[in-house]
Amino acid sequence: MSLLFDIDFEDAKARHKVLSNKMHAADKAYYQHDKPQISDSKYDKLRAELEAIELGYPELAHANSPSQKIGAAPAKGFKKVLHAVPMLSLSNVFSEEEAQGFIDKVRKFLGLSDNEVIEIVAEPKIDGLSCSLRYENQVLVMAATRGDGAQGEDITDNVRTISCIPQSLPDDAPDILEVRGEIYMSHKAFGKLNEKQKEQGKEPFANPRNAAAGSVRQLDSAITKSRDLGFFGYAIGEISEKFANTQEEIREKLASWNIPETPYKLCNSIDDIISNYKYILEGRADLDYDIDGIVYKVNRLDWQERLGFIARCPRWATAHKFPAEQAITRINDIDIQVGRTGALTPVARLEPITVGGVVVSNATLHNEGEIARKDIRIGDYVVVQRAGDVIPQVVRALKEKRSGDEIKFIPLDKCPECGAHAVRIDGDAIRRCTGGLTCPKQAVERLKHFVSRLAFDIGGLGDKIIQSFYEEGLITNPADIFTLEERNKTSLTPIRTRDGWGDLSEKKLFSSINDKHIITLNRFIYALGIRQIGEVTAKRLAANYGAIDNLIDAVTKAQDTKSQSYEDLISIEDVGAIVARDLIEFFAEDHNINILNALKAHLEIKPYESPKASNSPISGKIVVFTGTLTQMTRAEGKAKAESLGAKVSGSVSKKTDYIIAGKDAGSKLKKAQNLGVTILSEQDWLDLVK
Ligand code: IVH
Questions:
Q1: Whose CA is nearest to atom 17 of ligand 1?
Q2: Spatial CB neighbours of 584, under 8 Å, sequence gap ≥ 6
Q3: Which CATH superfamily is domain 622-689 in?
Q4: Mutate which of 102, 180, 182 to test ligand 1's pocket (most atoms within 8 Å of Cβ)?
Q5: pTM (2 d.p.)
Q6: Which of 86, 250, 361, 554 lies in the 20 to 30 Å Cα band around 676?
Q7: 26-61 pLDDT, tens per residue?
Q8: Does the C-beta of 662 come closer than 6 Å to ligand 1?
Q9: Which of 3.50.50.60, 1.10.287.610, 1.10.3720.10, 3.30.470.30 is the CATH number of 2-68?
Q10: How far is Cα 568 from Cα 195, in angstroms, rounded to an integer?
């Protein structure tokens, strides 16, 4: 490379800049987006040239040069961290009636009389990204993103650069304190940042939330530091000692420890709640940060405790979302998208339009019935709306704007991807491709689902990689993923030799697969992509059957709908006759069983342990409630039992472990006595589950 010494400093500097930019972009694509843009060998060439220039002009090897970063970048983005207490999400309500419904449900669950006041803390729902701050001995030791709620990413270095977040707390703060809150970017900071982006010829950010997220997810904390970010605390995670009895007191304490808090209102009635909602909705444009609704939280912490959680959301809180933002644009075409389970979804291709700060060019039309009902035609002007992260929707057609050239949509009778018949059965709203896994689109979508975050979570297998490996026949079903490395060893065209790949990225791919040989049963069931089996139902199935073979066996026996296995199956919460039918159909397919067997050979499938259940005295037990309970409602007892890993049944049998007998218990109690089932009073039960 001695030639390079011949170039003068100005030229060297200019070339150095070009190389640096290319390498930074490649680093970013590789490390942050997991999407390599250039091959390893091209990258190595860039680096060699850059280093040669720096050899001649050492002053160019400044701190920002990619040469100074080599080795510093972690192997794969951010370190993962387990949350000591899961980070939850919120359920939503969209109207005054639904807000009232939330209060009614709280009242019913707790068994409160109509005149008992339920105080509600109402606070703005900040549109940013959630973050957990962990303080130990009053010092900030860790900051993490929410991730999947159980496990997030370690963003401590970046969060330390956010000036409004205290690095240490006053002495009266508990020894362990996790503060949950939202990192956001103010409108002012957002405006400035986008000006700067434009000046530097970079793409502007779509909205403050994207800008905040992009700023936090930087491997270089100097970049985060240069972005003016804010933080609001709104909840707590793990704490070493209790310091409040109400949500309001939590807020007050956090504020006294210098954690920024939003304004809020303590509401005593639904009228209070609604007038506050309207007030904030009207005034939101005056705020210097984006909010997308109001969060309602039951103020009393003892009630919060009793209300507990359902799936990923607390029963004691909900988000009252602001109405979706709308805009008018034209439908250029209607395409059909084929999903994982063969569902054909019509999608409107729109003249691109900005809705609530985001450019929208596609919107879902749900199904053909919906199109007919709304009489939506190709060429129509339509109202589109989007709310938060929800897929944009077509609300209605503006029929008065029709020219007469609009074209009616005619449902396809063949799958646009594989040509198999497309049919609608049993009054199902959805038309489906009957090609099953012979339909390439279904097969690819199933693979994408299999590796997705809540399933196997194999980050190295992004959508594009799955698509191309499928097309090349490298991965045609989930089991192929786990034989890829072996096959690659003897391949004439190993992955590293392909365009965009190299030794390093190949190694990285296999290590991301090898990390996933051990999987929990609930994730495994979810990953199979059985129609209607979402994350929550997968957990219920895993908790009920304990092992994959038990599930296969039980569902196979349940083909006989008169069998006990069928009865057991449909008695699981969320599994009715329709879900049972989908399960039975899935496990009746030889093809699926073959893949399952192939997968089992490569995997260690661990039993599902519900978070609290493992050390609970009623884990795995079958309990029955009967009679009138006085200290809790039936719903509350059932929810508590389930959260501790027990199964609640409506009838007493030999299998029943405990019967909780309230006042005036009748025939069930008698039967339990006859069968010798352990009988608990309501108080015994409360002592047991405390
Ligand atoms: S409370 C159990 N309060 O909204 C507590 N969340 O849609 C759960 N969010 O993940 C969260 N402002 O990132 C809460 N005042 C607020 C909030 C808030 C924004 C976010 C948070 C959460 C998401 C749920």
A1: 125
A2: 555, 558, 559
A3: BRCT domain (3.40.50.10190)
A4: 182
A5: 0.67
A6: 554
A7: 776 655 554 557 766 677 778 778 877 877 777 787
A8: no
A9: 1.10.287.610
A10: 62
